[in-house]
Amino acid sequence: MNYYIVIPAHNEEIFLKYTLESIACQTLLPKRVVVVNDNSTDATETIIDTFAQQHAYITKLNVTSTKEHMPGSKVINAFNKGLAVLDDQYGFLVKLDADLILPDTYFETIARIFNQQPHVGIAGGFAYEQTNNGAWKLNHPMGNDHVRGAFKAYTKDCYKAIGGLRCAMGWDTVDELLARYHDFEIYTATSLKVKHLRPTGASYNKKARMLQGKAMYTMRYGLLITAIASGKMAWKQKKVQIFIDNLKGYFNAKKEKAPFLVTQKEGAFIRNYRMENIKRKFL
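That's the Glycosyltransferase family A protein sequence above. Prediction below.
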């Protein structure tokens, strides 16, 4: 099964080489890898060039965008620019972060999942982060049926059905909700342990949390589900401010009449799906 990888990279000189090395060691190599050098001011471009010289399937794309390292729109904007230089002759498509180390059989396993279970539209493993004592510990704040945005693989049929990735905060939630709306399933493989080299949330701040609240509004969650989801996030991270900032972002988006990421029909499906999940957990 052929697959393409797109890697948005902004000032990733510390980690990028490890990600590209782990790709080069895959038992099932990609057909194409596009590394999008997004306005980097460090040695990111040099690292890409080195690997591109060694591996014919790796190419570089230089783009210019904001210097601010905000989750959401910046990374998907870079991803979409990388995707634009590729054709659609792939079995599955991968959006990959530039700060990961993948196990050698990662994509061979993903290909097997898609081949053997055609109803699966999105697949991935689990993220592990290094503790102070050097151990690699599972860090998966979402449910086990969620694939982290850092390493998402989509079948071509699923990717086209959901209309691509939304260029906004919350893209890695709305993609799975829309996949389910179109009758695709999400598959997470516990055997695929991905080393995440940058701690989760290292680049998140108050502005990012408010964008999270805005995302909940634009995904048509409604106030009740937004409050429950924000409360859960705040409880897990033991930070009340997360709840406050999320709701501020939600109400600001409502006041500004921010455009929705999904249709009314998709929004109704999303609210029903979320509420049913909440009921199963609490009842």
